[in-house]
Give the backbone structure.
Amino acid sequence: MKAFDYARPKSVAEAIAAASENGSAYLAAGTNLLDLMKGGIATPSRLVDVRHLQGLDRIEERPDGSLRIGAMVGNADLAHDADFARAYPAVAEALLSGASAQLRNAATIGGNLMQRTRCGYFYDTAGRCNKRAPGSGCDAKGGDNRLHAILGFSDACIATHPSDFCVPLVAFEAVAEIEGRSGRREIAVEKLHRLPGTAPERDTELEPGDLIVSIHLPAAARSFSAHSRYLKVRERTSYAFAVVSAAAGLIIDGGMIKQARLALGGVAAKPWRAREAEALLSDVRAEPAAFRRAADAALADAKPSGDNAFKIVLAKRIIVRALTLAAAGTPERAPALPASPFSSPAGVLHV
Amino acid sequence: MNLMIKLTINGEPRDIVLDDPRVTLLDLLRERLHLTGTKKGCDRGQCGACTILVDGKRINSCLALAISHDGADILTIEGVATGDHLHPVQDAFIAHDGLQCGFCTPGQIMSAIGLIAEGQAGSDPERIREAMSGNLCRCGAYAGITEAVLEAQKHLTTTKTERAA
């Protein structure tokens, strides 16, 4: 690991000043950053430790009914907060389906938004990667790319975003609160992550010095709490990144869907909101034919970026299954295997 | 530049001088304090062999910078027994053959102690397996590990109830 200086600012303002300098990076728990530094993929010359900053570890309900979650709240602490899990069950399920218990204890929700792709070529410093070394090329194209993007990819990069947590955040219109050199601003999580285009090295819209201080979940998202699920296919049952995942939320009245929310994970360089699918699920009966139409619409623009045409079919099946599970109702208690297709309640069709 | 931090390690307050901010909690424990019970498997947060408790919570010590944990209370495998009396989780691992080669065992035991304190799994073996998925065992002693965690949890819960009565 390259040598670095360590700074522990006492305030957000001090942190922003320190992190605005060239070569600086914010350190929260470091569960992704230290891994990248050990591999020589991230080489900051200074770490600005924000884990100890006061006031960033609170969960507060705001007067408008929305929830403000401090960026340094731990993944496990948030997932196991009973009020939170009741109000936003798909977000809690996504958190519990990610990584391992140890990593969830250490990792912070702000850090989760900033994690980088798990593309093997991004990690392999002997290979070419436009995200790691802009302009060097992309070894994933024509390489081992079964797990790569099927939506929104470019010639320069076919990597996916690895987060589970961000998928329901996008579905339920969460907002990231940012402090930066020009003050405080808010940006929808859906707009935070970028598609690769010709600049895959830029994962997000954040500028140097920008610090995510909190995430807001709107009050309106609570209306979906009775019918919300996160579903994730992995190559092993636990402790693996998504091949494809989906967050689904429904408002159902008398068997009719009034409103739907749907987002996909593991399919693009950002969590993918499926608005066309949502539109098809307004004022229709909650039944398999409607779910299949929505799934087709969500993947209408999908294309394989390599040996991954199967992911298009898989994503459609995951959407149908996630909507079916959401329609059946949010389980009283988080399932033993969170988000796993292997812990469906009896009677759910295998699609 | 020397950086001074304070840690409580297995109940003992320590002043620690770090000559480099790159030192992880794992390397601090093993290479500098010679507490080699905590194992280095992958060193990248994938195997769980380095699991310790920090302020009561299980984490991977390989992905934690020591400098960032100034003031923390750390429990390692060396600190779980009381004199000659093994911790109930250690006893249960022996009783249920929850190991073969033993390399992952300190991490498994620390993870199990953390899991029981979290109180999320109950007596459902499926939930125990899921909550222990961050600890790999290349010998494949998983069946014994699950049984050991279940028994230790039962023992610890009963003891707690008896004390409360």
Summary: Residues 3-79 of chain B form a domain with the Ubiquitin-like (UB roll) fold (CATH 3.10.20.30). The helical segments of chain B are 25-32, 88-95, 105-118, 125-131, 142-164. Chain B has two domains: 3-79, 88-164. The two ends of chain B are 54 Å apart (CA to CA).
